[in-house]
Amino acid sequence: MSQSVSPQTRKVVVALVILAALFMLVVEPFIVDYMLDKIHPNQVARYETMKAEGDPKAPLLAPAPWLVSVFFPFWMSIAMFAGIVLLLIAKALYNGAVWAKQVSLVCLALGAFGGAYMLLPWLNFVAIGFSPAMIIMFVPLVPYFAIVVVDAKGKTQKWIDFYVFLILGVTAAETFGNGHAATRVLMGHPKMPLYAEGIFILQPSRNIGWLVTVVLLIAIYLLAKRKESGWYAAMAGGWGAAIMGFATHYVRGATVDYLVQGLMGLAIVIPLMIPFIKERLIEEKLEASEDSSISM
């Protein structure tokens, strides 16, 4: 955070970061363990029921327990390590180190990604409504947006930064989740390793989708320092999400998830193509714009 932010405000934001870090490091593992204990039996039971009824979609569900067993602890472990990093750099963040702001936003985004990914398996196999994954998702988001908003000058800048850093994170999480779904189908389809009609598209969709997740994280890191390279990373990730989302929905069309991904990609690229918004995201252009407005 900038030194122009009042010490009291910086203390509050850093306190939120520390609380989120402790949650990610100490509390989240217990929540994930609890969720797995609830999800796994229901996944197995549904698969056995579908198999007994001769449902042709049963093989597509078979890999689900294995994937959840891998990716729930995977995201939990990332969150735990991110929590360690956040605790280590908390003082640097308070002192206004730009690199600490960049790293903090990435670590908090990673923590929220895990919760977003864990949300759907709970809703699909346990219960509709409140999910413990919401806690995992929202706890890191509070300091994430606090850092974004307090460092922005003026209401217009705050709203632009809020939207951009929101849509980058949401799209990154969506593309990873869709990649998980694609992997489940590719692992479970009875014709594999041969590709049935409409299945091959899932390979580039998953691979590019996971690349998009990484690129959008890089965009968050770079835009936190208002680098033009961050704008290009965001545009690359947005176009990747949009093109593969719409292409997969057109070829396969089994769910609306890929359509949503495509729309999220457009929600990145269209606003960022607007000169006024682009200028507000890049340090050199923002300073030039402010100088111009002052001279007028």
For the largest beta-sheet, the strand count, sense and barrel status come to:
none
Number of domains: 2
| Strand segment tally | 0
Task: Count every helix, treating DSSP H or I runs of 4 or more residues as helices.
Answer: 11
Task: Compute the average pLDDT.
Answer: 90
- Rounded to an integer in angstroms, the radius of gyration calculated over CA atoms is 21 Å
Straight-line N-to-C gap: 29 Å
Shape: globular
Order of helices and strands: HHHHHHHHHHH
Structural category: mainly alpha
Low-pLDDT segments, ≥5 res: 291-296
Strand content: under 5%
Helix content: over 70%
Written overview of the protein:
By secondary structure, the chain is mainly α. The chain folds into two domains: 1-151; 153-285, no CATH class. The protein is built from eleven helices and no strands. α5 (132-150) packs antiparallel against α6, α7 runs antiparallel to α8 (228-251) and α10 (275-281) packs across α11 (283-295). The longest helix has 46 residues, at 7-52. The model is unreliable at 291-296 (pLDDT under 50).
